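Hello,

I think I submitted the S-adenosylmethionine job twice by accident. Can you confirm which output corresponds to this input? Input:
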Amino acid sequence: MATLGNPTNTAAVLHRHGFHFQKKYGQNFLIDSNILEKIIDAAGIDQDDCVLEIGPGIGTMTQYLCENAREVVAVEIDKKLIPILEQDTLSAYDNITIINDDILKVDINAIVQERNNGKPIKVVANLPYYITTPIIMGLFESHVPLRSITIMVQKEVAERMQVGPGTKDYGALSLAVQYYARPEVMMTVSAGCFMPRPSVDSAVIKLTRHENPPVTVSDEKLMFDIIRASFNQRRKTLVNGLGNAAGLNLVKEQVSAALERMGLSSTIRGETLTLEEFARLADLLSTMPKR
Ligand code: SAM
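Support: Only one job matched these inputs. Its output is below.
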């Protein structure tokens, strides 16, 4: 079968099926075979792997995945793409399962159980950019057994995932990704590698799941609630931001007392705290009486 990773073959498939791009689904299909090969290389896919692909589109990357992995599960929201995948571009493969659903609603743990006996899978995707963060957070927070996530995202979002404190891009996404995984930007990809061209540059980032998180914290959920509250009110001091945050049930005095125990100033902002410091803050606050 002719590879889809070029403009001529992609346009031919679209034309053959009378397919029109849906902007609301973030449809920008890869048309560069060089980039596709590099993504498969970066993901380190081999014949033992069960791979989850989010948003196969017309199956351009899926073909590479089917060639390299033992088994592929592809979840695609757009029902107009399903006959293209099933009857045309992926019809030659018997190691593919296509699911027509919204990835945010699918029970991925059940898929991993059924398809890979609950053993860790690899996720590979050219993500729809409008839901990048919920997809990544959903995969981590629902504790899907994962070895790695290799994804195309907006370049700025890739940068946000790997920066540390004291930079403007540092935020809740950086901390969450670094708690669960080791981020590594593998390559940047120009808008010309997609059809239609997106209005932003892109990057492929690989998130390799930590066996154990780099910090220990007694209440993981509380730590992430604190992190989110800190960055929701980025310009406020931690004492004011956390003291006012709905749902945390903290008073300013408790936050100042915890910061003092950590040897930190009570005028400090969340954007200067490391992951270790957020973990320690959560541990200290979890032992204080609720308001
Ligand atoms: N993988 C293809 C490629 O690289 O050419 C297509 C990538 S395109 C950027 C994103 C794909 O995700 C589209 O096919 C889109 O329809 C699909 N998609 C968008 N939202 C989705 C969702 N919530 N669940 C599953 N798929 C989704």
